[in-house]
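Hello Y.,

Per our agreement to keep a running log of every chain we model this quarter, I'm adding this entry. I've kept the format consistent with earlier entries: sequence first, then predicted structure.
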Amino acid sequence: MRRRRIATLVVAAGTALVVAASASAHAHVSPPVVQAKSSYLFALAVPTEKESLTTTKIEMTPPKGFGIDSFVAAPGWKRSVQQTGSGDNAVVTKVTWEGGHVPTGEDATFQFLAGTDASKSYTFDVRQTYSDGSVVDWSGPESSDTPAPAVEAKSSLGGGGGTSTLAIVALIVGALGLVVGIVALVAKQGGRTIA
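Predicted structure for the entry above:
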């Protein structure tokens, strides 16, 4: 009985996330609005939209002036980083995550600590590879079917305008964590009854 409730909760949460993702199904870097010259935990989310295929590789080229300091581990994915310089002068020029298998209707999600050096718009080039070898370049204009993800850095977030955006991002990341946790719990329990 308890397993059935957990399974129902997982399905309901997953459905809610899929519906939210499909409303704006394209690659995103969040938060979309930040204060310039401050560090944030960013998330890149890339949807798997092709039926019966999985996303197996994501390449991200950050724009100049967008400095990545470190990465959050992404279980199931191997990360390789290209950079210029070393130590405190290192500048990440490209990141590749590969080896994962994200099915249709779900997002490949990667997190990194980073900051911007000025108040302006930062546009990312993202390249997605599917299990059949097909590629989607998320590098088009905002009005295209494959718009490039962008972050707007402002000198001030004035009056909490960014607060609601950050709250929405935190809610989405929290919901994803809840779904992953419940799935892991159910998978770990295997054939045992949950007490």
